[in-house]
Amino acid sequence: MAALSLIAALALGSSKALAQTTVSIPSSGASAVAVSSSLFNTGFELASFPLFAQTYLSNPIGTKHATRIQRIGPGFWPLTSNLAAANPLWQPQLNHLNTTGSLTIQDAQAMASGIGTSNIIAVEIGNEPNEYGGHSGGSATNATYFSDRYQAIVANVSLAFGVGSTTPFFAGPDLATYDFHNKTDWSIETLFGTTDFDKTGNIKLATDHWYLTNGDTSIPDIMNHANMVNYSAPIAKAAKYFNTFTPHVDYVLDEFNVLNGGADLTFSSSLGSALASVDFMLYAMTLGVKRVHFEQAYGSNQAIWIPCNNGTSVLAQTHSGYYALITASEFIGGTSGNTRVQQITPGGNDGSRFSAYVAYNGDTPNRVALLNLNYWDQSQPNTPRGQPNIQVSGIPSSLSSVKVEYLTNPGGAAQNADQTTFGGSQWPYSNLGMEKKGVQNTTTSFPVKGGVASVAVPYSSIAIVYLS
Q1: pLDDT for residue 242 is more than 90
Q2: According to the 3-state scheme, what is the secondary structure of the chain?
Q3: Where does the Beta-glucuronidase C-terminal domain start and stop, copy by copy (predicted)?
Q4: What's the pLDDT band for 63 if we cut at 50, 70, 90?
Q5: Residues with Cβ < 8 Å from 468, sequence gap 6 or more?
Q6: How far apart are CA 341 and CA 69, in angstroms?
Q7: What is the pLDDT of residue 390?
Q8: Is the pLDDT confidence value at 222 over 80?
């Protein structure tokens, strides 16, 4: 009979055995995409940054391997010293409406002295120019106007920082997600391809914003790999463009999160949103996206941790997005900066509720991510959690067993981060973001025979399989 996805078979209540999902690891990383260990980072909304800076987290991103980059707006440069112990790089922002050269130079000089030029990866000018006209009409600026205005500001900023006119030091245009699927008047490809935006080669990062939903979906809906790939087609198109663009410019998602705005934290603090985030971030790697900045806005759906209490309504805590960053970063860890990533098409599965990726250390398989996006939650009456075994082949013959760590929650996909763990550990606010080991027993091993292991991957969980 035709193979059904795992969730479809469960929903139909079929008594027949589910098709075996198989994952075959390519022996060579020749088709894999090189990625940086500093791919995953965080960004702060301007109004939120003082709240995050006043309560320092020892491990503000919670990743073991990433070079931390923080993105903020102008005006708070002395506050950056509060996070100096984390050794971050910064991407500060200048107002696109700064029409006075002296004001622009003052702001840039404040950045240089407050942050330090060596701690700045790029300077961003403007923000979401395709939104300057609001959601109801066309963009207030066309691509040529934005390009000319941007480069006029760059001339003053370059003087303040003492960088040459051909030095790659700037980021833009940071187009808004909303208009990608609606009324975009111009795209990032239009800006770079038809204007003088990067005529002198001073653009270092080509930047867009990307959110997986505007709030018109549910947790089960967001946990769908096939839908995510289809929805993210504009990102795949832009990444492909910049993979061959000359002079070289890194394509960066300068804002990323699951849900765009809103104050209801139920959706974004769920395990399901973390699973969807990991799936997108790993997929983005395979496209050639060079950096992903996980967006932070205090008290909104975009917060992956809350740094301080807001009365009794919002309490300091880490959310599930924090664990998404940890999981994605761990997947590309342990490779001495020589990481390559490839998506694996599963066998016996239509790929809508399951995805798989392999990370190579150079040309050697290093880790495999198995994402079971089938929805399960304890709120479903009389529905046991599915526990399928995934047959993984192509494991190095030198291994007799593989260690596996899980991103999971015993209550399921709709639960918040209170019981979410990765590898049995938590990174709670009570520890100021430091790892708390042994919270749950969610690290195990599976035997390997003939290069094949049968790895259990429960519904609504991610398994990271270590091959070295």
Answers
A1: yes
A2: CCCCCHHHHHHCCCCCCCCCCEEECCCCCCCCEEECCCCEEEEECCCCHHHHHHCCCCCCCCCCCCCCEEEECCCCHHHHHHHHHHCCEEEEEECCCCCCHHHHHHHHHHHHHHCCHHHECCEEECCCHHHCCCCCCCCCCCHHHHHHHHHHHHHHHHHHHCCCCCCCCEEEEEECHHHHHCCCCCCHHHHHHHCCCCCCCCEEEEEEEEEEECCCCCHHHHCCHHHHHHHCHHHHHHHHHHHCCCCCCEEEEEEEEEECCCCCHHHHCCHHHHHHHHHHHHHHHHHCCCEEEEEECCCCCCCCEECCCECCCECCEECHHHHHHHHHHHHCCCCCCCEEEEEECCECCCCCCEEEEEEEECCEEEEEEEEECCCCECCCCCCCCCCCEEEEECCCCCCCEEEEEEEECCCECCCCCCCCEECCEECCHHHCCCCECCCCCCEEEEECECCEEEEECCCCEEEEEECC
A3: 356-464
A4: very low
A5: 334, 361, 364, 366, 367, 396
A6: 21
A7: 98
A8: yes
Mean residue pLDDT of the chain comes to 84
CA dihedral over 283, 412, 370, 38, signed as positive or negative: positive
Q: Per the structure block, which two tokens stand in for 332?
A: 């590309």
Q: In the chain, which segments carry CATH 3.20.20.80?
A: 36-331
What top-level class would CATH report for the domain 36-331?
Answer: alpha beta
For residue 328, pLDDT beyond 70:
yes
Q: Tell me the per-residue pLDDT of 107-136, one tens digit each, with 9 for 90 and over.
A: 888 888 888 899 999 999 988 887 776 555
Name the architecture of domain 6-31+339-466: Sandwich (2.60)
Quickly tell me which residue has 């804002």 as its tokens: 255
pLDDT score of 366 more than 80: yes
Where does residue 399 rank: exposed (0-12), middle (13-18), buried (19+ CB within 10 A)?
middle
| Biggest CA-to-CA distance, the chain | 74
pLDDT at 449 over 80: yes
Round to whole Å and give the CA distance between 273 and 258.
6
Band (12; pLDDT cuts 50, 70, 90): very low
Q: Average pLDDT in the 347-368 region?
A: 96
Task: Output the pTM of the full model.
Answer: 0.90
